[in-house]
Amino acid sequence: MLNYQIKIDIMKKIIKITSKICAALLAVLGFSALVACCKYGMPTMGYNIEMSGTVKSKTTKLPIKGIQVSYGKDFSITDEKGDFSFYTYIDYGWYMNYEDSTYRSDSIPIQFADTDGAENGYFNDTVIIINPANKDEFKIHVELSDKN
Q1: Does the pLDDT of residue 98 top 60, yes or no?
Q2: CB 63 within 8 A of CB 54
Q3: Average pLDDT over residues 36-47
Q4: Hey, how many other C-beta atoms are within 10 angstroms of the C-beta on 124?
Q5: 53 vs 15: CA distance, rounded Å
Q6: I need a surface site. Which of 12, 65, 96, 97 has the fewest CB within 10 A?
Q7: What is the pTM of this model?
């Protein structure tokens, strides 16, 4: 009978140690999953879209080369004809509405920046708000005003 009690005590200790190891592993793995979400972001829903169009001078109506058109990290530089095209990912999240400084989900800012300096003249940087509404492509035609 004493042998039997020793076996039960050993089994209880093994179960207790195993439970602590499992709890520690779960805590570490659960925490690392949280860290991964913070580092890489939560899965999102959205769609890919091609942004394309033309940039012209407001005063001369001629195409402007060297204008950077961007949304987030994605961008394109206009060619000799003022044309640009790039693909980007539109998230079904909330975006800053620059017109009234509120957040909205139906509009996104597209930025136009004169990055070539004096090569084609100086133009004012501009932000326009668009609503792509789940399209595969979106055409934008913009006229930039000259810097005075």
Answers
A1: no
A2: yes
A3: 56
A4: 13
A5: 68
A6: 12
A7: 0.61
